[in-house]
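To whoever is on call:

I kicked off a structure prediction for a single chain this morning and the downstream step that reads the tokens threw a length-mismatch warning. I double-checked the sequence; it's 366 residues and nothing unusual in it as far as I can see. Pasting both halves so you can look.
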Amino acid sequence: MRMKGKKGQITAFQLYALLFSIQVLMVLFINGSFTGGNDFLDNTVSCLLAAGLNLLFSLPLFLLYRADQTMSIPEWSVHLLGKKGKGVALYYGAYLLFMDGIYLSLFQVLMANVIEPHSVPWVLSLITVIAACYAATLGLEASARAGVFLMVLVLAGTGLLFSGLLVQADFLHFQPLFIDGARQTVQGCLVFFSFGTQLPLLALVLPAVRGKVQRGFVLWNLLTALFMALLILVAVASCGDYLRNQLFPLYTAASMARLSFFERMDMLFVVAWMCGLFLKLSLDLCLIQRCIGFFTSRGKYLVILLAGGALLLLSQVVFHNAEFKQMLLDLVGICILSFIGAAGIPWLLLGVRKWKEGKADEKTEG
């Protein structure tokens, strides 16, 4: 399972360009029902707080990475715990599948309720999953190269969007922060952290990356948080209270943007969402296949296909069953799952490693 040579590797820049494109996807579906309030401006602070959590919770991951740059977290688990450690690979694979099902179901909600009410969302989801399965068979490098292209597309599209929104900006739309308390800010911070999934992804993909990974992480984390906060800030400046009760506030803001002969700039939003979703699914399916590889080395393409089918099935269940959707979208549960993958397992493995090193030192002294 370890990486050898440069085959299958990507650069740190490609990695963080890919993660940037995926992270921006997350902020597009943020609304009051997720963050616990309609004071959208408070979520600018949430972005920055979530970046702080990412830095804090990344410490055990990068401590293990610094100790051995050739091993992912599941490989560390097998190294330290033996065959029992394979359960960690199963956890990460199931976690990614679960989160992808949620993302895909939210995309269907966007299509069915906002963009085209008469569409058949599962058909578009099926096409997206099939394309993602094919891209996953091409390996990590293909997703990374596409991530760089998408980052350029997102930045260019955002520049046009800002130009269209700022011409109608009004500073009177800004209200004091925390006017209803800090609850929404804190809940928004937890949403940005738990739905981001970037640290669990790094736990699996770091050995395949060459370059200044740790410095790149700090820079990516800060710039992505500032970018998302700026998106929210510009949307509030141009649309104000109109965003308070919108199902997808940023999509609503994009649909109101006008720039000379450019109209329907919300299509930039849709393109960014679809491309980001496609990249996330393809990357995660590739990593899920690697997690299953700890149990069997056969049927690589079959594993990807089965994972894609399970993903599509899960998204349909979430989309059509309101009670099941409410249960799966429970913020506390998702926070716990994300924390376990981001910091809980790395901290545990770091502790086991220190304990084993201590026992080895005692035997040497004895």
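Update from on-call: the warning came from a stale cache, not from the record. Cleared it. Sanity check on the structure: The CA atoms of residues 46 and 186 lie 7 Å apart.
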